[in-house]
Design a protein that fits this description.
It is a single chain. The chain is mainly α. It has one domain. Helices cover about 85% and strands about 0% of the residues. The chain contains 5 helices and no strands.
């Protein structure tokens, strides 16, 4: 399979994930539930990560239309995704704490560290210091980022459902 075919498929999958992730908040509103600051933050987070994967996956095929050499294309694409991924990972715990009003749970820190590692892998691919920039590392890092986003989405969904059930139980007991 050519790298562009894989990356375009990954971009389509990432956009599908974004749409699915945003459905939960919509369904919650339709069901009469309020959208908390944390709900909105988590939804925005998954939309951002999904679009980062989609845009990152579309960048190499776009750059391939130019006269740039392939190693340079992988460097540019890798740094273009690494920078926001690392920034996202570094700032996420603080932004989540502001949205939730509580410290970031330990399980979420593990997700943040994995995202930081993905960003570092992309930065290494961009640098060319340890190995030649290549499509496998780039596509693998984006795939890991989308899988991490899916896993984190399931964690967030479990948290939101637990809070919804506890609020519903509290209302029913009144």
């Amino acid at each position: 399979m050519a790298p562009n075919t894989y990356l375009l498929s990954l971009a389509a999958l990432a956009v599908t994930f974004v749409g699915f992730a945003s459905l939960v908040v919509t369904l919650r509103q339709i069901g009469g539930g309020n959208v908390s600051k944390l709900d909105a933050f988590l939804t925005r987070t998954f939309i951002q990560l999904g679009f980062l994967v989609a845009a990152g996956a579309l960048l190499p095929p776009l750059l391939a239309l130019s006269s740039l050499a392939m190693p340079l294309i992988w460097r540019i694409a890798s740094v273009a995704v690494a920078a926001p991924a690392i920034f996202f990972a570094v700032t996420y715990p603080y932004r989540r704490q502001i949205a939730s009003g509580v410290r970031t749970p330990t399980a979420i820190w593990a997700d943040v560290l994995v995202l930081f590692g993905i960003g570092a892998l992309l930065a290494a691919n961009a640098s060319g210091l340890f190995f030649q920039p290549e499509p496998f590392l780039f596509a693998g890092a984006l795939t890991l980022m989308l899988c991490l986003s899916g896993w984190a989405y399931l964690q967030a969904l479990q948290l939101l459902l637990r809070e919804h059930v506890s609020r519903s139980s509290a209302r029913a007991s009144k």
